[in-house]
TrEMBL record:
InterPro entries: AB_hydrolase_fold. Keywords: Hydrolase, Signal. It comes from Halioxenophilus aromaticivorans. Gene3D superfamilies: alpha/beta hydrolase (3.40.50.1820). Transmembrane segments: none annotated. One of its GO terms (molecular function) is hydrolase activity. Residues 1-23 form the signal peptide. This is Alpha/beta hydrolase.
Amino acid sequence: MGTLKPFLAVALLPLAILTLVNCGGDGGGSNTSPTPEPEVVTREHDDRTFTVAEEISFAPLSEELAYPPSPPTDVYYGTYQGLQGEAVYAFEAPQDWDGNGLIMYTHGFRGEGEVLDVSIPPIPWRLAVLSAGYAWAASSYSANFYDARAGLEDTNKLALEITDYLETDWGVSFDAPSQYLISGVSMGGHIAAAAVDSENIDTTMFPVPYAGSAPFCQAEENQFQWLGDYPRAMTEIAGYGDRDYSEFQTLLGDYDESGSVIIQAGEMLAALFEINGNGTPNWANPINENGENLVEIAKNLSGGERPMFDEGFNSYWNDVSLSTGGADGTVAGILAGSIYDNQDTEYRWTTGDITLAEQEFNDSINRVSASDGVNALREDGVRWIPLVAGDFDVPVLTMHTLGDMFVPFVHQQLYQQKARDNGNEDLLVQRAIRATGHCAFSFSEIVTAMTDFLTWVNADIKPAGDEVLDAEVVANENYGCTFTNTSPDAAEARAGLPACSTQEQKPKR
């Protein structure tokens, strides 16, 4: 690798002068009204407890990857105190590592179970990082659910204190890292992006001077806007807008035990799509204009016209994207109120000027507002859901599949717009991958992205990326071809997806 460069939930009291009150002619004294105690806001998540898994060991990369060869490494693991309780740490370093740069890995959503497992990055990610001479460390976080706050605070604490834990638990001594980086996927991508955003740097309990971030397929606070907008649009367009939103799952149908695959379509889906003989929805075949319009609404909400959308919509990831429909907007108790708000959402199935039918739809759909102060600044660290505001001053490289129906490509467009609003778009490189599924990257796509990211951070050689805001560019049939792996192995894994043509692509960023 070579040498590396080295909520505020404050009650806004009225600006009133506390008047001194004289008590007759006895010389007086003074009375003041007692300062009211600030309101304590609690949430369901505060009472949850989690348990560390019994087995937290893991093997060095060289024992898991026969080819290509990986450098010899040492692995360490243990527990430490996190924000919500005990957490698991994992650490792997080249055998000649002594503080030559540390990359924190942030894992994605792991459900709502009580057990906290060791977090191990994907093999290609580890290969790229370790081959470049870096060590990596990862936290289980001290809580499951979508607790990105615990994820960020626990990861930052681990970054600053990992060498202490290693010396205490394992008797090994390392120099403090000369450089800190961060990278993650899905919810972990949310955490990695938030970690370098200025507000979170200012409010975290454990500030880490990250020199760059590589968030992949990242979610963010707008994920919960998408997960509310799409099912509400389905409810209205299917003719069930007069039903309480909490009935959504009953109207939608039954899921399998995993809670991610619809095994029996309900009456709402039957009003819009063909139902297969086994009872599952055939997303590729809307049965009427309402069904066709819903497909277009989903497309526009998730990033607009682009390759791979149809294939993603027609996959089980559409089932997954609807699996939280009907939820109350508290993100399963992570918040004390509802974050969802569609007062300003415009639902469209065409482009250009809004049509009369679209206007009537927007006038009729139920509108709700987020709870006041639902995700406010805090005095004890970052927000319950840390914001990704696009306000950063270090290199950031992202990657996202175009057909992701769960955490859609629109997040990349929102991120780019925020970066432009902050004037730091030159520090953001984004790559579109022609695949369906969530975080469905090939081995080489991950290795290439991480290698290019590290080169950018250390040699100041900015890598190429894709334009994400120009609708004409994104709609091109060859969009995403530049960084998508077309090798036989990747092509086999993505069989049935449209191949790139020989047509010249639009210029990339």
